[in-house]
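Pasting as-is:
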Amino acid sequence: MKELKERNIYEKSIKEIKKGFRLRLADIKDLNKLYELENKAFDKGIAEDIKTIEDRVRIFPYGFLVLEHEGKIIGSFSTEIWNHKEGMDFEGVKLNHDIKNYHDINGNMMFISSFLIDDDYRGLGLGKAFFNDARQIIKNNFANIEKEVLAVSLEWENAINIYKSFGFEIEKTIKNYFHNEKTNIYEDIYVMIR
């Protein structure tokens, strides 16, 4: 497997916002913090379970990055590499899907399976910079990536606007994707591709 060069996130986009931020590969020892962060960011029924997060870290460690501020994990960016085929149904975007069924290190499409910033750090301009830097690091290390895909709730307008600003377009809508247990409402999602 290709070596991914771990880098500090002192890219201009992050550095200009605030010092003390670092982007690094996730490690299995981060699992409990990643699970805690996932559950803080997303309501029950939307958050991924701990086994899914663990599988992603173990199976594709070079596609799972964390954002730290002064040593504290404040964000995560998880990906898989899939084989994109015209007309595909994107069945794999299901919550808690098994990465082993879709991930192919030689594939041509990066599926962004999770992206989040701790609520306490939102509104600082980190989201766009983190999203951009994490994507670029992975794409720079896996040159076969031609397309990118993600799933986002129709309710998350800020996230949708960030993705659109990077050229993602709505490919399809999947009805009743999430069951938000907090609101007891089923939420639709967009599958967005670039």
